[in-house]
Design a protein that fits this description.
Length: 286
Amino acid sequence: MQLIISGLTVGFLYALIGLGFVIIYKATSILNIAQGEMVMLGAFIGYTLNLYFKLPFPVLFLSVFVLTALFGILIDLIAFRPLRHAPESTLIMATLAILIIIQSGARLVWGDDVYPFPPVFNPMAKRVGGIFITPQNVWLMIIAAGLMAALFVFFQFTKTGKAMRATQQRPETASLMGISVKRVFSLSWAISSALGGVTGVLVAPLLGVSPSMGWIGIKAYAAVILGGFNSLPGAVVGGLSLGIIENLAGGYLSSAVKEITGFFVLILVLVIRPTGLLGGKVVKKV
């Protein structure tokens, strides 16, 4: 049970980053391999704001959310709106270019050091029913679950959310019905980037802040494939499952096995169910 609870903490982080992958893919059909770098950028923005302005956590969290959302809109306007009808391989290379630019820019501004991020909540473990739980991890899971619930409400019950869902299903029909497809694409980039940014703030006290911390995006990408790349609930299920599986493997076997177990399970799931656990078939007209 101790390993499962610890795995859930990591799993919630994978799920948040994974939701960013899915939102972009469903809206624009672009595989954004730079999503992990948005996590890193959000962590550095949070670190800088905390260092110079000592902002309260709610203000810091909201500031990172807004700034990374604006950065996502900027990415769409500069890099992807001109390439909207480019081949898929070109779009993937564009996200690779963004990854390199963000990572190199971070090294240029902050250097290659690992910076400690002060814990936002109490990191001291407390014994609850024979299990050690830290308030920091509990709050991390609560905040992550709150963000996921807010996304669900947004997509299901708001006019803008319904417009985004319509655009994701049939862009041409949505455009004919008066929905601004360009605006939906920009909003998708904003939400995806903001999710990555605030995840960086949540993970920074656990990992520290460095230009290489975007590696966590690779694990989140594996979690999304595990759950289903065209499913928002699949990203959540895949993230939580991967976090628990990795932690159990690390606890019962070794840390080396922990790093490969998730990918082994991923391959196994893809062999049995190529669309992922909750992914559905994608039908395209040709």
